[in-house]
């Protein structure tokens, strides 16, 4: 597989694309004469069995189940174990029925059907046959199909659970001809280092043509900022990309390249990608590399940097008509030769737009997309299988409005992009399948984080595998300034800290070590089973500690409001700790309603509180007290709490000086009772700059010592999907008054999603 790179860049006064031309397709080389620049794999797939000449070639149905065996005949009563084995046994006209269950990916299917006898691989229950990474991955493609006249229908391809070996760069890949990928769910592909590939690929490298990608849900493709990953990439001519829901893609949601020509891209709903649709050609495998007579119609493209773009070698007969383009931060169209007509430039009015997934992307009754499609570009049904059109004409996008909101196609909430595993000289491993009598090596994991802490030494990473772990433990080992100790959840929020059967401690994780990082855990106090209620989620009493990228929620919700303090994340000076950093965490649903003693993020040292999202906290979302001083509070988004941000000092432990030289910049403080306030002992050198403070019911800002806030934005932040009671989406709309109104002073290098923070800086946790 060669790597396909399409860069869109802008210079002052420039409207043209800068293009780095290479390839994006292919899989393993079938002969020494084929030499793609970047190979997806170089070894024979280990789970592809030898051909079985004794198998009855007349069979028209084969069966695969997790309870089967590849030595079976593949009947309903005696199914195969793997899809690769079924492909060996299949003949033209065969339907391969795959039962619900989890199947290891990284396999190849090569058998072809014929024009009148296709081969179909069908998940018998939609999305219930799940393709996941094996224990050690040797291949960069989850499912590599080389057969022609092949249909792949209804599978879930989930790359989020990478364990070891090669990360998947492609989910479903077809390199034959006249194949289809339909009704599938492909997600979390290419989530590690920047790779080349995409969620679904139809390639011409092996002379494939006429492949269709229809009615799929594709999301969370590519690492943040990666320019070489696409949601759907099509390199073969005469191919269709229709009725797909595509979002959260690092580069193009749909990319046409190499030998693509005469492609039809219609009725897709696309959002939260760098670019919506790229129509291009170049680096041809089997043609002259000119993309001509392609058609882009009846699509919805929302909340992208670029909308529809022509790149590379394109002809003058491509057409762009009846698309809805909205919230492009750069350009809705950048066409080299084509002309866009009948564009609708208005909000599509989704039922519930959530930028990160999990919303409802069907249309409301008042949507301007209803009945605005061209009949000649319409599909017979929509993504939900509903007949199209339901009204006077087809609706734009993947969903047809039929007078009532139908049950949506499921779109599971995506996992955030994880932080990279820290590289250290020493490594320990923890898993729910481990034992504390083990060594802690990768093949002999420990059972508890507390045991790993006892074995850790400076310059150690503790890798904690996904699973549920009983909280109420303490970690005490310290790192050093040059050899920190990292506790790292190998899948972000996959390692979950929950209350034990009978809780005897009031802190989920009590860290007393110095030079310690806690990265990527979920702490969920919602299901107390018995014993002591947790007062704190993540607490550190050491010095130079970092709490980063965690999700802490439902802490102290049932606690009696009796004057005793509590918090989701606490950085404390009681044990003489100094300097703690709280970075890029999600904190929500903390404390019983109205209790003024329970905080979201509570800091009593120096340090920083940067890039966090905090909402529904009974008192302050962010609270500085006790010995707090010299704290940077920057680029946080806080909402729906008693108070947004409290800067203060008092009830001192180890010092008596006021909280001074604290800087509060670039924060969104919205819909709280109080906004930003100074309390207790504060100095004259604190600064409050470039914060958006709005709709706080008592006051927005109250400072002491004659201090004045500057650069304040007093306007609705225009969140993508705000709710006080549900799960809000606190990303910003393109028209938000927070865009570009921040200061570079104290701004972080990246936002909560790992995107670069560059001038002009956007206020809040999301850039």
UniProtKB/TrEMBL annotation:
GO CC aspect terms: extracellular region
Query: Domain Right handed beta helix, which positions?
Result: 171-329
Query: Where can this protein be found?
Result: Secreted
Main localization of the protein described in the UniProt heading: secreted
Matching Gene3D superfamilies? Single-stranded right-handed beta-helix, Pectin lyase-like
Q: Which protein is depicted?
A: DUF1565 domain-containing protein
Q: Name one Pfam family in it.
A: Beta_helix
């Amino acid at each position: 597989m060669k790597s396909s790179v399409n860069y869109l860049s802008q210079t002052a006064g420039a409207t043209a694309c800068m293009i780095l031309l290479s390839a994006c397709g292919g899989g393993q080389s079938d002969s020494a004469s084929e030499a793609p620049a970047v190979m997806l794999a170089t070894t024979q797939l280990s789970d592809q069995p030898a051909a079985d000449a004794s198998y009855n070639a007349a069979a028209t149905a084969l069966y695969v189940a997790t309870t089967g065996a590849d030595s079976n005949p593949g009947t309903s009563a005696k199914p195969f174990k793997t899809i690769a084995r079924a492909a060996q046994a299949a003949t033209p006209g065969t339907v391969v029925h795959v039962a619900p269950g989890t199947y290891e990916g990284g396999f190849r299917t090569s058998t072809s059907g014929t024009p009148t006898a296709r081969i179909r691989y069908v998940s018998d229950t939609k999305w219930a046959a799940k393709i996941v990474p094996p224990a050690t991955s040797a291949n960069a493609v989850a499912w590599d199909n080389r057969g022609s006249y092949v249909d792949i229908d209804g599978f879930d391809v989930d790359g989020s659970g990478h364990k070891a070996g090669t990360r998947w760069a492609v989910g479903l890949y077809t390199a034959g001809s006249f194949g289809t990928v339909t009704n599938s769910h492909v997600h979390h592909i290419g989530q590690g280092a920047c790779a080349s590939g995409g969620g679904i690929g139809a390639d011409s490298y092996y002379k494939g043509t006429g492949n269709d990608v229809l009615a799929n849900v594709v999301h969370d493709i590519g690492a943040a900022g990666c320019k070489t990953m696409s949601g759907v990439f099509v390199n073969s001519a005469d191919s269709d990309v229709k009725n797909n829901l595509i979002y959260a893609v690092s580069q193009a949601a749909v990319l046409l390249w190499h030998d693509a020509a005469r492609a039809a891209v219609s009725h897709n709903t696309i959002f939260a990608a760098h670019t919506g649709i790229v129509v291009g050609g170049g680096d041809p495998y089997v043609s002259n590399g000119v993309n001509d007579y392609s058609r882009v119609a009846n699509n919805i493209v929302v909340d992208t940097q670029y909308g529809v773009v022509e790149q590379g070698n394109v002809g003058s007969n491509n057409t762009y008509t009846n698309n809805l383009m909205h919230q492009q931060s750069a350009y809705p169209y950048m066409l080299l030769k084509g002309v866009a007509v009948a564009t609708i430039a208005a909000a599509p009015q989704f039922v519930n737009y959530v930028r990160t997934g999990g919303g409802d992307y069907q249309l409301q009754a008042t949507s301007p997309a209803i009945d605005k499609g061209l009949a000649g570009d319409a599909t017979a049904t929509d993504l939900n299988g509903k007949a199209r059109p339901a009204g006077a004409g087809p609706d734009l996008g993947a969903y047809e409005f039929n007078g009532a909101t139908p049950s949506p196609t499921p779109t599971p909430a995506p996992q955030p992009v994880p932080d990279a595993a820290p590289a250290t000289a020493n490594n320990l491993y923890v898993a729910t399948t481990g034992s504390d009598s083990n060594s802690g090596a990768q093949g002999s994991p420990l059972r508890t984080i507390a045991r790993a802490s006892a074995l850790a030494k400076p310059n150690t990473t503790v890798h904690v595998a996904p699973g549920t772990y009983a909280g109420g433990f303490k970690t005490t080992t310290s790192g050093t300034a040059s050899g920190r100790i990292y506790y790292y959840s190998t899948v972000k929020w996959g390692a979950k800290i929950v209350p034990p059967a009978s809780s005897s401690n009031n802190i989920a994780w009590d860290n007393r070590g110095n030079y310690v990082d806690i990265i990527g855990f979920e702490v969920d106090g919602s299901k107390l089973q018995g014993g002591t209620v947790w007062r704190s989620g993540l607490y550190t009493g050491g010095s130079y500690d970092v709490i980063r990228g965690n999700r802490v929620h439902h802490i102290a919700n049932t606690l009696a409001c009796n004057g005793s303090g509590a918090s989701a994340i606490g950085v404390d000076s009681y044990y003489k700790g100094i300097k703690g950093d709280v970075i890029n965490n999600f904190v929500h649903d903390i404390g019983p309603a109205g209790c003024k003693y329970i905080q979201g993020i509570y800091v009593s040292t120096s340090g920083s509180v940067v890039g966090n999202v905090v909402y529904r906290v009974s008192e302050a979302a962010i609270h500085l007290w006790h010995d707090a001083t010299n704290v940077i509070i920057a680029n946080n988004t806080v909402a729906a709490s008693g108070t947004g941000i409290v800067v203060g000092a008092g009830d001192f432990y180890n010092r008596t000086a006021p909280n001074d030289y604290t800087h509060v910049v670039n924060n969104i403080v919205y819909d709280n009772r109080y906004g930003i306030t100074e309390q207790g002992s504060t100095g004259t050198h604190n600064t409050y700059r470039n914060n958006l403070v709005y709709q706080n019911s008592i006051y927005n800002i109250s400072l002491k010592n004659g201090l004045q806030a500057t650069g304040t934005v007093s306007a609705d932040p225009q969140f993508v999907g705000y709710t006080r009671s549900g799960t809000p989406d606190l990303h910003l709309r393109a028209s938000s008054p927070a865009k570009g109104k921040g200061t570079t002073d104290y701004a972080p290098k990246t936002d909560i999603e790992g995107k670069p923070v560059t001038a002009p800086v956007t206020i809040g946790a999301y850039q």
